[in-house]
Write a structure and sequence with these properties.
Length: 187
């Protein structure tokens, strides 16, 4: 742009696109913050960019907050559903006697080896009592008293016989036989 040019070309940001605009020479002034020529009303190009960046940051912040709220809602709903499932399962266990109480399996709701241990006992129709240490404080106290550091923790007659679970079940079969419990056959 030369000094002889009576109509300098500036750039204006209108609805996310940069549009050239022609301004008469007498309308040109300088931005107080940056000392640059004004191109859009009372803003220089740097002010326009900063405003656009600020709006983008605000938009991203709002999106992040909404996403966090949705995630927390979903996690909370899943936790409530798990609690209801566990409540229904414990009610069903209380109604139907499943064991003479000799074999107790201490579990958590998220443990894959706990599920494998319970499936192993169920496949062989071996009666046991499940004690979930996630939600039942008395089960957690018993588990701690038995030195509970891991799950599943399997106890017979109040004595720990196995920590964890071997999916082959060979060690558990020997333990059950040693304690006079029929290990059964898989169904």
């Amino acid at each position: 742009m030369s000094k002889q040019d009576p109509f300098p070309v500036g750039l204006v940001n209108r609805s996310q696109s940069t549009v050239p605009v022609v301004m008469p020479m007498d309308a040109r002034t300088r931005c107080e913050r940056h000392g640059m020529l004004l191109v859009s009303g009372a803003q220089c190009m740097r002010c326009v960019k900063e405003d656009s960046a600020g709006q983008t940051r605000r938009t991203l912040t709002v999106v992040a907050i909404v996403a966090a709220c949705i995630l927390l809602t979903l996690v909370g709903a899943r936790a409530i559903a798990i609690g209801r499932e566990l409540g229904a399962a414990s009610s069903a266990m209380a109604e139907a006697p499943t064991s003479d109480g000799r074999l107790v399996v201490y579990t958590t709701s998220f443990c894959p080896y706990c599920r494998k241990a319970k499936a192993w006992f169920d496949d062989r129709q071996i009666a046991y009592v499940e004690r979930n240490v996630d939600f039942d404080t008395s089960a957690r106290d018993e588990w701690n008293a038995l030195g509970g550091r891991s799950v599943p923790l399997i106890a017979i007659d109040g004595q720990v016989v196995q920590r964890g679970f071997d999916p082959s079940g060979q060690n558990m079969t020997k333990i059950l036989i040693d304690h006079g419990i029929d290990p059964g056959m898989p169904q």
